[in-house]
Amino acid sequence: MHLAETDIPIESIALNVGYTNPSYFTRRFKQLNKCSPSDYRLSYQQAVFSKSEARED
Description:
The structure is a single chain. By secondary structure, this protein is mainly α. It has helices at 2-5, 10-16, 22-33, 37-56. Helix 2 (10-16) crosses helix 3.
């Protein structure tokens, strides 16, 4: 949730969830989600923006 719904730096999120190496967090995230944390965040934010635009119409 923090990754998708906040602008907290990815490095900080990695440390907050227990990773001591943010690069390792990124590698593991890519292995599990087939995209980088930043790409995941961007796609989530774009989806939310699209939904909010659709509601305004």
